[in-house]
Description:
Elements: H1 12-32, H2 35-58, H3 60-75, H4 80-91, H5 99-110, H6 114-145, H7 149-161, H8 163-171, H9 177-186, H10 192-201, H11 203-220, H12 222-226
Helix pairs in contact: 3-5, 4-5, 4-6, 5-6, 5-11, 6-9, 6-10, 6-11, 8-10
Amino acid sequence: xxxxxxxxxxxxxxxxxxxxxxxxxxxxxxxxxxxxxxxxxxxxxxxxxxxxxxxxxxxxxxxxxxxxxxxxxxxxxxxxxxxxxxxxxxxxxxxxxxxxxxxxxxxxxxxxxxxxxxxxxxxxxxxxxxxxxxxxxxxxxxxxxxxxxxxxxxxxxxxxxxxxxxxxxxxxxxxxxxxxxxxxxxxxxxxxxxxxxxxxxxxxxxxxxxxxxxxxxxxxxxxxxxxxxxxx
Length: 232
């Protein structure tokens, strides 16, 4: 009995079959990349490895304390919220990472009132990225899309389903926020107003991160931790 498609396999065997297929497909895609594409890919890999190593070496306590100190300085500035909005806007561009951390930082600085800062930064950052990327790469993207049947099928589905599908994709945790912004900017049927409406609807997720930041703020300050009752 043939198992070439993995249909007659079950359990670990099917999982292994799928994994081998994925690795083979990924390797073929990698080999098809030009030198420029491979350099970009390895640059991203090295960037994220270095970032992960940094967090591991520095440690969670020192990072949390640094976030708390920075947030307190911002909260005492008259236009400190603009700094957070600017940070969120920059981080919204790929390949940047840390958007969720910047939203949490709003909670560190302003408590639950930081939600309004996070909402502004989310909408402004997303709108700027969408507009800039579409303006810069629209011609190149149209040329590439015209020869890619799968991409044309994706655009056709999104155009047919409209705003509802855009909201569902926007609410998904994958791809990461910065890459989600670039994804929508690259899909021609998605209008800016649809993109912003979808972003607005998923803002409750930002409220959760702001709440977490507001609760963590007290635990991140070294002086505050010293005075906590460790018996409870």
